[in-house]
Structures are given as structure tokens and as C-alpha cells.
Amino acid sequence: MRVLTKVSLIAAAVISLSACQKEAAAPVAPVLDTDAAKQSYAMGITVGKYLNSAVEEHKKLGLPLASETMVRGVQDTLAGKPALTDEEVQKIMTALDEQFRAKQAEAAKVKAEEAIAKGKTYLEENAKKPGVTVTASGLQYEVITAADGPKPKAEEKVRVKYKGTFIDGTEFDSTEKSNGGEPVEFMLNQVIKGWTEGVQLMGVGSKFKFTIPSALGYGDRDVGPIPANSTLLFEVELMGIVGEEAAAPAGDAAKK
Hints:
Blueprint: H1 3-15, H2 35-60, H3 67-78, H4 86-126, E1 133-134, E2 140-145, E3 157-166, E4 171-174, H5 175-178, E5 184-187, H6 193-199, E6 207-212, E7 232-241
Antiparallel strand pairs: 1-2, 2-6, 3-4, 3-5, 3-7, 6-7
């Protein structure tokens, strides 16, 4: 959410606080004996959490904010005596928003370059390993379990089990994690390019390991837990082609 949007929400919350908060000093411990008191205090907690989060987000990008001064701004606003006009606030926050987005873009660019470099190095080293085949597109695969079952076409639906990890070994998804260990089904031409190409190389009952360059994965997009430009590793077990009599040979699909 952009800074100005967040600030607008906080402003609305601050304005809605009880008028008694404009008076002198707050008690050492809040008295939460009415719904109004609890609601007001909860609103204050919400504002405080936002302010803490904003301070941390800006600090990470080299834009330090003083939390004490932020709190003073809230207090002065509640007292009806802000030191800046609405026009000045708008101008300052617009400039801060622009700085924040520029810093975010810089950080994203650095992160993307690092991911590309690490992926390139990993792919180069992995391609040298025995048993690894590299296709014309750059997809790399290893046969873990071979099977002579039929191979799917891109326009067909497949049934698979899989595990996906980053090059550091961190698991980001699997049928074990997201589907209770049960296979999932999907159209082969409706997934990332590395999957579409790779699974067509598999016979039903086989298990392959794919190393997928970012260009054959999600490219420069952040997708859920997967950062942009990530090289992805998948272990895929092809259980069947949906709509065909293509059951795996006994025992093959269970091999690890």
C-alpha cells in the first residue's frame, strides 16, 4: 500500500479517537472499563503498530523516521494544533512517497541482479553433474525413476506429485505441504514453461528432477513465496494422464 494511502487511513483513525484524549496527560495504565475505552485503546494500538511498521520499512530503505516526532504529530493533531498546514503535509508526504517508491525500485533491482547471478552460477555448476541433461531452452533435468508409461502432450491434463525448492534447498511448495500428500491435476499448457516442457519428457510412473531457469519459471515477477528471477528446483512424479488408461506400473510411482 502506498504511503499516502496508509497515512489517510491513520488520519481517519486519529480523528475518530475520543475527545478526552486531547486533554493533558494520559494515565500511567489505561482504564478499559467501557466499550468506548476499549475501542479507543484498540484504535491506538492499531495506529501504534502502523507507526512502528512504517519506521522499520523506511529504515530498511535508508529513510529514517523519528518515532517520537511522529507521536508528537499525532498528539498535536488531537489537540488541534498541528505545526504544519494540510497543504504542507500533502507536499511533504507526496515527496516521501516518491522517495520511498524510488528506494523500493532500487532495492528490487539489486535483489533481482543478485538472484540472476546466483541462478546463473548454480545452473552452470549443475549442468556439469553426471546424469543432468540440458535442453535447447536451458531446462535441466535428471531422471530419478525411469518408467515406460505414455508421455503427455502439452494440451493434456496430468496428475502429479511434486516438491519445489529454491537453490539453497528451502522448500516453498509441495503436494505434501499443500495437498496432504495427494496428487494434483492441471492442464500442462497452463503452467510455467519449464513444467510444460519438462513433464512432456516424462513417461507415466517416472520421477524427474527439474532445474528451471527463471526465464522458464516466473521471470521478473514476485509470485507468492517465490521472489522474482528465482531459479527453481522441482522433483516431479508423473502419476497419470487424466482421461487416459495410463496408470503407473506397480511400484514405479512409489520409488524415491
